[in-house]
Design a protein that fits this description.
six-stranded parallel beta sheet, 2 domains, 5,6-Dimethylbenzimidazole Phosphoribosyltransferase, Chain: A, domain 1, 6 strands, Rossmann fold, homodimer
């Protein structure tokens, strides 16, 4: 990050008409954005949420409350504007991009960005979810999409979102492997499975790790063996945002699993990440801790799609407005402390 | 609350294209708004933050990092639009109303609503902050302002804000009395006093409670003896919002102290309150617990003015848009769980 811009931002924050540091996270976000962009008075103009979709072979183990075809159906819902992310992105004045990273069926809906690597992952309980080459290809797709959005389309704030029936299962597996944690501690109920379903999901994750023996020192190996295409794409998107000096808001559990991969590939990428909410999914807090990020929104949400990130955009923009629009003690004729 | 409208809202929430309950607080807020307004598809149109200002005799005990004249100076800053609350209210498309409830000097700035009860409170370390009659008058002023904003000006969402140098001191006193808590547990550093300043502030609060012996069973007696005019006005505003079936967002520590008075006067008023952020001021979480409210924003803020409430407006509006704009499983052709 640009430390000179950050220092200049701090100097300004300290002369604004408020007790020192009293705007907390708004001030630290303003400073982070100064460091990311090199502009001590950072501005946000175009914003977007990138919703990546993929299917999961492990869904055949019955780990989700919903059938796999819902991934495609929800992609169609995103394109028509009727999903939760559409409503909340519109509310935050952000555009939504939908990317097919690996949905199990062909998609010919207008507006869907086709970066399909394969028709869903393989069932990781039996074999690797994807090959190493497929994982690299999916990461690269994400990097390229970020670059296009930033360099060609002028977006200055990105956010992650996803759709993929069963994708809390690979996300839990990634957390267990990278964090060296027990499966029963990292695994939650996703879209809402019962106690027996939870046990079944935990067993599937345990088996997947046992069968595939992912190498924790090679993040792409872990991603390939127990990850997913939309997760890989988002990890690439995050790396691409960082490479192009653009802040990116991380949504909930699955997006954070992607962020964890990005961090393991390029540790400095964390400096470009802005956390959003604390999901109800129990593993989410653990991933945020591994990343050293603290959630800003406590809304008991667990929908994904980028819904928490879309809401957090309002906070990030508010932080920019604070540093740009607030009066100083001198301007306002207010006695300092 | 209107339980029929709430039930209808719940029915709709459950058929929207998302796992049951997965939008957490957004869903419960939508349901609460349905109950408050009687409309199962609640809408928010005009929004405002009411910033009430008052001075405090106890400031002469040196309990704040800022001198009392800053109250007036900040009122002038509010009117010019340069304060934190102006920036964040604009960002949430909300109007700001500034009310002089008891600033120590005359104010002749255009746009300030004059409901001055007195030129600051008395020093509560020596005598009651105000008389019982003054406390009632201040409460009534708040009730009347709420009624005017809702009935005559058409606001459908209110938020509380305040300015008053030294006002974390009476707020801490109110919390200690109503909660039966130790002063050292409820008292924080406000705008940023040092360790010696904190001890001095705690002693002032202890003395104020000892000298005045507030009667915890008579909330107006407690308010009169160890409260403040802007706090009383806000308590009235909250009661007025509830009486006129309008939701009101509660800002930080001082606003929550006002909410606690409102609750002690009329327990059902809590159903009309929507919490916003968790302030850095340690007593804030305790008040929210007494009220049974949970914060939605974790931003380490401690500015007051209504800044946390202004940010939370975006979440509340988002909740309304979710229930009104999201597609149902049937409409979207998505398979349910």
């Amino acid at each position: 990050l640009n430390t000179e811009a950050m220092q200049q931002a701090q100097v300004r924050l300290d002369i604004l008409t408020k007790p020192l540091g009293s705007l907390g996270r708004l001030e630290s976000i303003a400073k982070q954005l100064a460091g990311i962009t090199g502009n001590p008075r950072p501005q946000i103009s175009k914003k977007c949420v990138v919703v990546m979709a993929g299917d999961h072979g492990v869904a055949s183990e019955g780990v989700s409350a919903f059938p796999s075809e819902v991934t495609y159906q929800m992609v169609a819902n995103f394109i028509r504007g009727g999903a939760g992310i559409n409503v909340l992105a519109r509310h935050s004045n952000a555009d939504v991009f939908v990317v097919d990273m690996g949905v199990a069926v062909d998609i010919d809906l207008p507006g869907v960005i086709n970066r399909k690597i394969d028709y869903g992952t393989r069932n990781m309980v039996i074999e690797p979810a994807m090959t190493y080459e497929q994982a690299v290809k999916a990461l690269e797709a994400g990097v390229e999409i970020a670059k296009d959005l930033i360099k060609n389309q002028g977006y200055t704030l990105l956010a992650t979102g996803e759709m993929g029936i069963a994708n809390t299962t690979p996300s839990s597996a990634l957390l267990a492997v990278f964090g060296g944690l027990k499966v029963e501690d990292v695994c939650g109920r996703g879209t809402g499975i019962d106690e027996a379903g939870l046990k079944n999901k935990q067993n599937a994750i345990r088996k997947a790790i046992e069968v595939n023996q992912p190498n924790v020192n090679d993040p792409i190996d872990v991603l390939a063996k127990v990850g997913g295409y939309e997760i890989a794409g988002l990890a690439g998107l995050i790396l691409g945002a960082a490479a192009n000096k653009t802040p990116i808001i991380i949504d909930g559990f699955i997006s954070s699993a992607a962020a964890l991969i990005a961090q393991r590939i390029a540790p400095l990428s964390v400096e470009y990440m802005i956390p959003s909410h604390a999901s109800e999914e129990p593993g989410h807090k653990m991933i945020l801790e591994l990343l050293g990020l603290k959630p800003m929104l406590l809304l008991n949400m667990r929908l994904g799609e980028g819904t928490g990130a879309a809401l957090a955009m309002h906070i990030v923009e508010g932080a920019c407005k604070i540093i740009n629009e607030m009066a100083t003690f001198a301007d306002a004729g207010v006695t300092g402390p």
